[in-house]
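Shipment paperwork, digital attachment
Item: protein structure file
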Amino acid sequence: MRFPENLKYSKDHEWVLVENNIATVGITDFAQSELGDIVFVEIETEGEKLGQGDTFGTIEAVKTVSDLFMPVAGEIIEFNNSLEQNPEKVNDQPYEAGWMIKIKMEDENQMIELMTAEEYSNLVG
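Attachment content:
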């Protein structure tokens, strides 16, 4: 499993990449492997402001449905629409084409609360 060093990670298995106060968010390689084959990603919160830890959507695999949690607070400004037709991108490229949302962050200081790649790797074993 890979956990890119340039990303931050949440205890809920989301990854975050920040560029110019915009956070791109997806689920980690560990999370997608635990879920199995992803068949549907539902995000109906585009345009909404949500708090850190709030649910922003769900992800459905063959055998389960899991909530997706905001790693940082802010407004969801974009959803990766390509996941509607190709949800398997989350399995195949979790850190690239499988990203889920972009957030206009309210407080960049919340990034301090997230884990480094090493800390996340230690968490998931």
